[in-house]
Each structure stands twice: as C-alpha cells, then as structure tokens.
Amino acid sequence: MLQKLREERKYRLAIALLIGVVFGFLLQKGGATEYRVIIEQLMLRDFTVLQIIFSAIITGMAGVYLLSHLKIADLSIKPFNVWPVIIGGLIFGVGFALLGYCPGTMAGAFGTGSIHALIGIIGMLIGAGVYASFYARIQKKLGIMDLGDLTIQDHFDISPWFIIPIMMTLLIVVLFFIELMGF
C-alpha cells in the first residue's frame, strides 16, 4: 500500500494537497494567519506563533524519526551549507518583517481571502524565479562552507532517541513558561 503511494504521482499530490489544507486550517484556527498575531510575535508581545512552531517541531521531530525507524519513510538529510542558510535566513527575515507572514502563514492567510498575502505570494514566486535563474552562476560560491550532512546525533555520535526526549522536554518547558508568564 505505502509503496503504491510512493510510486503514484497523483496519490502523492492528493496527499500533499490534503495535508496542506489541514495545515492551513490548523494555522487559521491557531490564529497564525492573522497579520496582527504575526506582528505581535515579531514585537515580542504575543507568543502564539512561537507556541505553534514549537508544537510543530516537537510533533515533527518525533514523527519523522518514528516513521524512519519503522521504515515507513526515508530520512534524507540535506547538506548544511552555511552561506545559503545565512543569506536565505536574512531574505526570509526581511520578507517576514515587511509582510508579516512566513510562506505557510501567507498561504493560509490567502486561503482566508487576504489580498496582501496574495501580493506576498507573487513576490515570493518572483524571488524564487530570480534565485533559480542565478543559481547556476552562484552555486559554487555559496557552497564554500559546506559542512555536509550534519545532524546533532551524528556530530555527537549518539542515538536520535537520546536527543529527541531532551529536545521535546526543553521545548515543552519553554512552552509551559510562556503560558505561565501570560504570553
């Protein structure tokens, strides 16, 4: 059954669409598609978005490694290239601060009828096109600080099942204190 899902493109697209709709619905219900909530997070007044992100990290971390452990999914670690991460993070941060949305919340906001989210999506697509057109020329320059397939467990030579409970506990404690402080 799972092998058929992997092989059939139409099933993969249908599953991706379903997951995207559910993700957007949950973002909207959590308030993360509201411009005001995003701006309040950026001004460190409302930590709703951080709570959603930390909850997603906890769930995703455990889920990905569990699926990999059960051989349902393949864990594919991408190389850690320092400069593309720094440059991409800066571009992402500027776009996030100017528009008040990240790509996921922007898609969710567009789904609720936000016109400025549509403008952001158009800008994001234009930016992706510009990057793709220059990629071949800048690829070697950006790969100067390639650290390879770097993970915490590989770096310290320990099991991911040792790291996951520690990270989950740490994030849950942070979530608890955010809630306790009234954010």
Describe the structure.
There is one protein chain. By secondary structure, the chain is mainly alpha-helical. It has one domain. The chain has 9 helices and no strands. The longest helix has 28 residues. It is globular, with a radius of gyration of 19 Å.
Structural class: mainly alpha
* Radius of gyration, taken over Cα atoms and rounded to an integer in Å: 19 Å
Largest sheet: none
What is the overall shape?
Answer: globular
- Counting DSSP E segments of at least 2 residues, the number of strands comes to 0
Written as H for each helix and E for each strand, in order along the chain, the element string is HHHHHHHHH
**Which consecutive residue ranges, at least 5 long each, have pLDDT under 50?**
none
Measured between the Cα atoms of the first and last residue, the distance is: 44 Å
Any idea how many domains? 1
Portion in helices: over 70%
- Strand residues, percent: under 5%
